[in-house]
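hiii, so i know i said id send this last week but things got crazy w the move. better late than never?? heres the sequnce for the chain we talked about at the cafe, plus the structure i predicted for it. fair warning i was half asleep when i ran it
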Amino acid sequence: MLENIFLINCEEANLQNLKLNHSSTDLASLARIKTCLAYPNEEILFKDPDIIKQIVIGESATLERSINPSQMSEDFMYAHSKAIRVKNMNLLILSLPYRHILGLVFDLDSNPYDYRNELLGLIHEYVLPKFHEKLKTQEKTNILLTLFIDLRRFADESLIFQPEQNRIMLIDNKPLIKVFVFGIDNAGKTSLMRLLATGKFDQNYFPATKKFRITNVKLDSGLKLVMWDMPGQRIFRPDWLRGAQASNLLLFMLDSADEARFAEAKLELSNMLKLYDLQNLPLAFLMNKVDLLEESTLNQQNIKDYFELDSLDGRSYILIPTSLPDRKGIENLLDWMDEQVLKMLSLSGLKTTVEM
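okay and structure toks below
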């Protein structure tokens, strides 16, 4: 399974110095100027200084040519993409234009070449048209995010997928239930994911999220959910659909204490729910931060009316007021997800045939 993705910018690296003297000086400067990007684990390249050094030295012949997008033919990419092991890391490496290196990190049991054709297709279709010499860090971040989402989805769809069974995927004859978590920034999504995964809440634990996270949650029934939490900043919203595809449940979070942004939240919710790929999927609408509404007249009916929840055609939904610091609404959410999943399995004829 794909675990991480990274991009190294070698424009400032002294390749001759690295090869002849095995010096890590240039790599340290790369870290200082933040030209190494990685997701979801941002520190994966820096746990051992030799990791970046070995990767860069291995790609030095291609990097010295400083290829441009017009040279990245399918034959070139196929010939220059290679699976390697560095410091017990299982990698698929490919040099990109303007002295960049793209790397995929897999668990040790995976064969990186299983992903090569899909990766090269995505690079040809999506990356090369966007890749230019003055690419900004945020643009590179978006490229990594998109590649990671599409490759993880490719891995999911390569498993046993049975569309006639309500789009439920099976791994080892057990259901894989995907929950897509979305909402505009500052709604509390990542804090919710940490609370569900660890049972802990810390008001100051998370800064604004700029990457998507995958969290595994086990329900009381024994079923396991895979929850995809997408960044809520405006620049990431066009990629929401990529993360939402092949989902079984939708979870939308609203900062109910920030009425000034209700119109923005409503627009983004509407844009997602009208997409063909997501039609009829059950929706949990979390009215979050109700602990901050003590002096407000806002109530659940106001939210229903404003967001027109009773007008959702063909879609079941639940509105749950939540407060993460005191876990208000969390048990209701878990019970609802359990109920929805069991209902899907029953309708699909899987309830009695899949060992929980």
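btw Residues 18-34, 159-166, 352-356 have pLDDT under 50 and may be disordered. thought thatd interest u
miss u guys!!
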